[in-house]
Structures
1.
Amino acid sequence: MGCSVLTQVRIVKITALLICLFALCPICLAQAPERSLLLVAGEQSEAGTFSHAELRKVFLGIPVTRSGVRIKPLLNLTDPLAMNVFLQQVVFMSEREYKRQLLSRVFRLGDQRPPEYDDIDELTGALRETSGSLTFMWAEQFKTRSGLVSLGVLWASSTD
Amino acid sequence: MNDQLRRLLVATTFAATIYSPAGYADFESDLLLFPFVEANHLSGLSADSIRDSNDNDYGLNIFGAAENGNFVFLGEALIAKDEQELERLQVGMRFGDGKVWLGRFHNPIGYWNTQFHHGAYLQNSASRPAIVEYEDDDGVLPMHLTGLLIEGIKENNGHGLGYAFAIALGPELSDSLEPLDVLEPTSGSQGLALALNLFRQPDVYGPTQFGLFANYTEIPAEDRGYDEIRQTIAGGYGNWESDPWRVIGSAFYVRNRLDRGDVTDSEEFVFAYLQVERRLDDRWTIVGRAETGSGDDNDAYLALFSDYVEDRILGAVRLNVWERHALTLEISNVHAREDRYRELTLQWAAVF
């Protein structure tokens, strides 16, 4: 039994629609800029790469040493979204919980809290000047700054 | 030593210790201020009660930590209405994932004493459980030791195995338990103290942890008619957190051997508390706590502490007014020695 004319028309329409969608898809992807959150250090850094577990340890204020240099985390507060993504992807805590944990560690154990920066120029300056320092920042922030090196991508996604 | 001179000495010693290595290149430091103001109203007191129906307290806990390479310095000074004391003064060194400390530190028994102590802002209730009350407030266990402390955490497949071991000098018993005074180290007499705390963190460096602890202290008590009191403590604890819930609990077994000449009395009691907290949103948290003991009714050791609380049930509401400021309203039903009363506490605490 052959298909009815109506069914054949519907199949053609659906096929055409799918072809259009596939054809347009790369255009849509190209239009949505990819955002990447990078792990960044000063260009003199010899820290190498970090696993997420190591980074979590560093940003919880627990001493980590690389090539004989103590790693010093700097908190980038210049963009709340960057901070939130960092907390979700690396620390696995809310900002409230994270700050409580830092305070508690300082009070109990005498560890140091990561310094906070809400000015990107000051943050960049600290990265260049402080041996072993690292932070996180958006790829577009990184590209406009000199004297920095990316140690890896912490998170990447397409957004609209 | 008069209060003014003592305040000056506390502040000067504290500052000198924390900032003495400030000239070195790798020097880093952190300073935290924990101010608090508290008002208490007690109702239902017995006619011959030794307690005041209205009371207040205020003070500033100054905390500083500094490090230079592997060397670590830590100091905590309390300047309050009725007390000026160097609570902690520690010099230490890092090794691997641990630290070895010398100085005066918080006795690592259980969870509460090392986690919150005088940082009132850090805890969600206004009061501490009676079993871990400060020595100055008629606490019955040593909360401060002076000597050697080794502590750290070992990572193991994402879990944490923590330890703290202390060999130190404990308190003597006069009007209350008196830990060694760093400003007047020869003013009292102290005996041996040993403490051990072993704990496990399901998620290493995460807030949830469960542990066991033990403590042995030789407490000179000539002022109270005893040659010495030998105190042995063992117990377990847990702090479980899964936002918005938090549960803190601990159980203590305490055995005291009181020596007077040829006569020796042995007394023992157990005590436990359970605190449940629920965060309602970023500003409001509600708290409930129950604490009770057994075998403490005619305990000769506890009879030396007139303010000892045997049972308490409390409810509290904490409001984070602004960032780093908290208001706590706490209502409790208290059964103390020879007294039963209700207590209403309003506390403001902050951290800067």
2.
Amino acid sequence: MQDAAEPLLQVSDLRTWFFTDAGVVRAVDGVSFTLARGETLGIVGESGSGKSVAAKSIMNLLEEPARIVAGSIRFAGREITTLPEEELRDIRGAEIAMVFQDPMTSLNPVLRISRQLIETMTAHKRFTPEEARTRAASLLGRMGVASPEQMLDSWPHQFSGGMRQRVMLAMGFSNTPSLILADEPTTALDVTIQAQILDLLRALNADLGTAVILISHDLGVIANVCSRVLVMYAGEVVEEGRPEDLLVDPRHPYTWALLHAAPRLDGEIGNDRRLATIEGQPPDAHAWPDGCRFRARCPFAIERCAQHPELLPVGDGRSARCWVTQDGSPLHPPQRAAVSGETIHAGAVTAPLLEVRGLVKHFPLPRENFLEKQRVLRALDGVDLEVFPGETVGLVGESGCGKSTLARVVMRLTEPTAGRIMFDGQDISHASQADIRPLRRRMQMVFQDPYASLNPRMTVGQILSGPLRLHGLADSAAAARERVAELLNLVGLPQASAARFPHEFSGGQRQRISIARALAVEPVFVVGDEPISALDVNIQAQIINLLIGLQERLRLTYLFIAHDLAVVRHISDRIVVLYLGRVVETAPAAELFVRPLHPYTASLISAVPHPEAARSPRRIMLTGEVPSALNPPSGCHFRTRCPVAAARCATEVPVLAEASAGHRVACHFPGTLQAG
Amino acid sequence: MLRYIASRLLTSAAMVLAATLIVFLIANTVPGDPVLTQLGDVAANNPEMVAAYRHKWGLDLPMWDRYEIFLRGLAHGDLGTSISSQRPVLEDIEQYAPATVELSTVAFLLSVIAGLPLGVLAAMKRDSWVDHLARGVSLIGVSAPTFWLAFIMLAVFYGWLGIAPGPGQIGADQFPPPDVTGFMLIDAPLAGQWNTFWDAITHLILPSIVLAAATVGLITRTTRAAMLEALSQDYIRVARAKGLFRRVIMLRHALPNALLPVVTLGGLAYAQLLTGTVLTETIFSWPGLGRYTFQSAVILDFPAIMGVTLVVAMVYVVINLVVDVSYALLDPRVMRR
Amino acid sequence: MSQAESAITDAVAGALATHETGSGANRRRRWRRRYGLAALGAIVVVVWALLALLAPWITPYPPNAVNVAGRLTAPSAAHWLGTDELGRDVLTRIVFGARTSLTVGFTVVLIGGAIGTLVGGVAAYARGWAEEALMRATDLMFCFPPIILAMAIAAALGIGTRNTVIAMLVVWWPKFARLARSLVLGQRSLEYVAAARTIGFRPTHILFREILPNAVGPLIVLVTLDLGNAILVFAGLSFLGLGVVPPTPEWGSMVSEGRELVSQWWVATFPGLAILTVVIGFNFVGDGLRDWLDPHARRR
């Protein structure tokens, strides 16, 4: 039996190593922390920091080749590392539960939801099947599911990611565990859904007293839910403390870097628009460097850093693993270069480089058989857009809004169903590929997935010289090699890269290669389809800086698509907000965030988790899920979730109309919904 | 669901029609005089018969009309006349089909009963001796020529060891029971001839093992691969995190997912069995369709070959239809959006 | 050294003792376990290929030399594998049979594979009605169990190796078409293909220079596994009396000739063993290739 004052979980010097063919990976290399009953702890770190492995180690859910090699994990008085499998099984799902990252693959597709929920409860013999079913329904209701009984009898594939994550949460809480491990539970979800899930998590912790360990790469997410946070880097805890303290006064350079590399909604944007970031990437996990593992990238490194620092207290309830702060020196905020950036950002007098009017794109879905009705996916349902030379237009929206489709239609990778696309005065809406080919020199695209956007069988040199040869920009092998060298230089990659294959590079480096490829033909217009979404925060900042620098040097025009509002705000001159295939609002960047007129924009902005939770404006919570693009609501697409919708919204489609200079909104009641 | 079945029925009907077209085309690309080929030696000495058949089959008419005549004939069950038996091919088929159906059904059951658990076990205990045994067995089954395996089994277990009964569906000392269904295993008990029943079973053992050999290999391999694939999925990790027993995870979570690709195999497995009978029955003197096909092929009894091909194709289309519908019933993602 | 660190050392020493990665001997052992069978299969195949190539020079007797007086003699010093019904040396005929089997196998699979890949690849890339038409044609061929259809076609064309090969080709390409289609479809949705289109490359260039090289892996696995299959099918057709024209030595027809000679078991047994070993060889190699390509099998 456990004493109430004793911590629920006590991890001491945990080491979990992977014994792979290529060597030993010391994924968790000496992590210690305690967790009291009912406490909320966040673990933040980038990929490869070891945070997920640490969580899995807590209930020893490790598979070959991973193994706990040292350290102790005491949970409710029991030593997890030495428990036999049968006893571990008793604890898993009952005392400790885990919620995983990807809701789309976490549920078994051939079993009904009821079955998957009930088996958790009956397996641990806490409930009979009948009791379990009743409890399952009430749990689902508690998690915000509208018709729990109906959902119980359905299958996972019939639900969206957000709904499935609610089911996962219900499964996790079904046996009222003392501890829930949530491994990036909202990373795969839209911002508005994420806000709902985080609120849910907070409420459950408050009501049921379940301790929560929340893992994320996003400090904002953690700050919203947790009272304490651990920062992990290279398998170690490098800082620990309260989120509000960390955010104001980071005591480890890595935390410092995380904070300044991530654009914030309320952050200042310096004249040069660059983000303060650190170079390089995390060290190779197969062989951690000696001394401080962050040293190679640290802007504050001193001589002493050659010696591996310990995690020592640096204040009230705080500790850090850094010689610099332990000596007492603070970490200065980055110097902003007071560059009077030559803003090439457009005068509105010039003609738009890209003009889109009433763009419609419908996809007929393949039919199962002859006798079914044809279903149509209305990806774009009437989009108007302009991009002027030299500016950056940010396109933002959640999943299903059609932003990727828009990118592809604008690039004429696919033909629009209706509407007009004018590029530099030329109508390319229905031009043939042969006609468009010469235009391809002038407009290019950078894609989202760094792993799928480069042909794995071609060297970087081949990937970059292909476009040159096709468009006749290099008439000899030597000329091509020269130009390839130039391009590599332009994006900050070493010359030796040309002979290597994509798989030898990291995600961030691959995106640089993609950018180099896009620039090879010397375009004037570049569309970025979520080019940084798959990257870690620091790498994101590097790429953002690169893109901004390239824009200034080469006088490029960008259409930048993203779902991260802070990034879009940082990089764009003007922003276009998309919802379910239609533009709902467009405005200059600064103005959009100060005075959002459309209810969707307002709720989107308020849903972004604010690091300073105490200071965040009152949330506008949207109910429900995004409707399917197969059957969008009549009239205004947003009306089903809109807090201020009226009868008129169902019958009349709102038109994108000018509300003030450069600020257009498509709403019957603009400006009525205010946050805060 | 009904719409799905209806649509698949339509497709199957189209496939059957296409099969008839293909068979017709094959039959009519025969170099040389089709009549002589179809009638064989009989025709060579009988010019009036040749002329009569030439007229009957409309050989002076364009292709489409001949195809129509062919189809009409099919609708009446006219598959031509076997050169060797001089009977309508359909009659021959009706006579020999039951023995083959009996044999292939037993072989199918055998291969499923042996193959599925073996595949599941092999996946559950990956790289153990069970796994290696399973892979070894499936490898031999898939690599050995069926006709050779039949010979070896007969030579070893009957010729050398003498523990298995000889060729034939029943022993020479048994009286065949009255023909009610055509299936020995049903007719014998119906007639109260339990000796014959037992005799028939012992005669079934060797041929069905041989037939099942290749199919066991196929099923074991596919089941193993499907189980391994299912076990690598995220939802298995979740199941472990819920604290479920390992056996429950394997059998209740992984196996239902693994069975899906195995079910789609059903058609392929059956095709293999049908093919196998052609190569096996002769060696066991099994009075079935396979031996009939073999004999027809050897003497180039053209009408018989075409007739069998067409019938087999139709059966195959039906089997595939059943497999598709079964899959739709098992995989909730297919029918319910 | 702190206490924690010395605790590590003990645990580490223990853990590392059971796992010596990176050591050359261990890596070799692991490779041998995983790919040993594949290597064995490759050796078998190569040996047979050599035998086939050098057949006239290494066999003791001419393959068709009839010697009625010496018919059906058991394996002996003079005839290592015995003689058949016409007194011909079984060993010689088996070695010469390898020529036919291997040639037919490679021909059918390589040509059928090329045709099928082309059809499937074009269908998957072009989509639309081209895909519909091509895949319907492919599906049609799947109406029939392959050997049955090959049998029908071969019977129609007349016996002889060439006709049988044609019959087998007709039956062989559909499975490659299906595989190629699903592979190309899988690649087609990847972003590097979209990138190639934005650069302005033509569809043929993208299909052949960008997509197909990435789809080649599983296709090669299928080719290797299928070689064994093709040999089996051809042997089966020869067993049925289609296929080679007698007296050409061929393994399937040799088994057929001996199928009733239970006491003179060597006539039918050895040719079948030849088939078995060759097919197992190809299957081992194919399995090894598949494991090598499979991401799940690697321990990362």
